[in-house]
Structure formats: C-alpha cells, structure tokens
C-alpha cells in the first residue's frame, strides 16, 4: 500500500509541474509580444499634421508634394497627430502598456 500512495503523489506532482511550466511559457510569450522597441508610426503631412494613407509615405513616393513623412508615437485626434515626432530616435516605446513618450516635433 505504501508504494501505491507514493505513486499517486508523484503523479500529482508531475501534473502540478506541467501546469506551472505552462504558465511560465504563457508569461514569456506575452512579454515577448508586448515588448517591441518600435514606436507606433503613421504617415502624416509635415505641414498640416494630417494623418495620411500609408502608401503616401512609401519610399519613392512624393505624396503631398514631398510633405508626407512618418510620424512616430503620439496620438491621433480628429485626423491630426500630436505628442510624437518625425524623428524616430526621439520616441521610445514602453513594454506591455504600449505607452509612448516623446520630445521634439
């Protein structure tokens, strides 16, 4: 009888270990998905700060008379951007929250 009780204890411990290992794997996957170092980018008219269609910023395109450029970070309100920068290096992105901070303009 003693050997059967130790066998059932070992089985329970294994399933607990699998659950804990699975949780660690899930946590690692979530952190990896949310930790991109790239800030949000939008195609914007440099003069009016209007959000444009991304194809106007594609390389080789001179959309909006050469005024189309990528704007990093910030937010969009009423089709106008604010709080970000045209200089990608001036904007950093936080981990899972996706909060951006910026300077310049």
Automatic annotation (TrEMBL):
Compositionally skewed regions (Gly residues) per UniProt: 94-105
Region described as Disordered: spans on this chain: 83-105
UniProt protein name: Lipoprotein
Source organism (scientific name): Streptomyces toxytricini
UniProt lineage: Bacteria, Bacillati, Actinomycetota, Actinomycetes, Kitasatosporales
């Amino acid at each position: 009888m003693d050997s059967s009780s130790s066998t059932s204890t070992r089985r329970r411990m294994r399933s607990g270990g699998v659950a804990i290992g699975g949780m660690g794997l899930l946590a690692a996957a979530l952190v990896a998905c949310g930790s991109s170092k790239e800030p949000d980018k939008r195609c914007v008219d440099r003069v009016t700060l209007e959000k444009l269609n991304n194809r106007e910023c594609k390389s080789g395109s001179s959309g909006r008379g050469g005024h189309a450029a990528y704007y990093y970070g910030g937010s969009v309100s009423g089709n106008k951007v604010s709080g970000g920068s045209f200089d990608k290096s001036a904007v950093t992105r936080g981990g899972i929250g996706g909060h951006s901070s910026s300077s310049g303009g």
